[in-house]
Amino acid sequence: MLSLKGRTALVTGASSGIGRAIALAYAQAGACVVINHLGHAADADAVVAEIETAGGKAFACEADVSRAADVERLLQQATQALGPVHILVNNAGIIQEKPFLQTSEADWDRMLGTDLKSVFLLCRAVLPAMVEAGSGVVINIASELGILGRAQFAPYCAAKAGVIGLTRSLAREFAPHIRINAIAPGPINTAMLDAEHMSPEWRAKEMDIPMQRFGEPEEIAATALFLASDMARFYCGQVLGPNGGALMG
C-alpha cells in the first residue's frame, strides 16, 4: 500500500463526494487530514469520526475558500491542529447548468470564485511554507470539461480550464522540489450529478462514454493517492484523466 505516514494533507470540499473519498484514502495511508467544508459541519464531523475510529488523525474546519481571509484562517487553524501542510488538494467546486445568454455576472463570479480563485488563494497561502521546507505536493481537481467544453456550462468549463493552466504554470515555477499536478475526472457519481443539479439530457450525454457508467469517488481518490505518494515523484504539471474514456489522449 502507498504510504503517506508522517504527512499532513489539507483537502478542500472534503465533507462529501470526491473530497471525502480522498480524505479517507489519505488517512488510511497514514496521513493526518484537514477536512475543509462550507456549511456541512455534520458531514465533515462524520468524516473526522470515521478517520479517528480507524486510528487516524483529522480536523474539520469550515471556510469559504473563495475568500482570502477564510483561507488564511483555515491554514492557521489547520497548522495549529495538525502541523505544517505537506499535501494540498484543491477539490472544492460547484457546477451549474445554464444557457450562456442567461448566465449572470453573479453566476460567473460565484463559479470562478469557488472553482478557480480558491485554487489561487490556497496555493498562495500554502506554497511559502512548502518552499521553505523544500518539499510539498499540490493536487488540483479540474475536469474533463475544462478540456472538452460543454454547451450550457460555460463558467464551469472556463474555471476548470483555468485550473489546468494554473497547474501547469505553477508546476514550472515551483519544480523540482514541489510537485504540482491536476486530476481531470470524467462523470463521477456524486451529488453534483444528481437530478437537482443536472438535466436528464446532460446525464444521458455523460453516460455515453466507452465505460458506459459514472465513475466512483474512490476511483478518483486512488489517483490522488498515487500523485501524493513518492511513487509519483517524476510527475510534474500533468493532468491525469480518470474519465472512463470520455477524453482520450
UniProtKB/TrEMBL annotation:
Segments crossing the lipid bilayer: none
Full protein name: Short-chain dehydrogenase
Family recorded in the similarity comment: Belongs to the short-chain dehydrogenases/reductases (SDR) family.
Boundaries of every Ketoreductase domain copy: 7-186
GO annotation, biological process: monocarboxylic acid metabolic process
NCBIfam families associated with the record: PRK07231.1 (NF005559), PRK12826.1-2 (NF009466)
Highest taxon listed in the record's lineage: Bacteria
PANTHER family, sorted: 3-OXOACYL-(ACYL-CARRIER-PROTEIN) REDUCTASE, 3-OXOACYL-[ACYL-CARRIER-PROTEIN] REDUCTASE FABG
UniProt-listed SMART domains: PKS_KR
Pfam families, per the entry: adh_short_C2
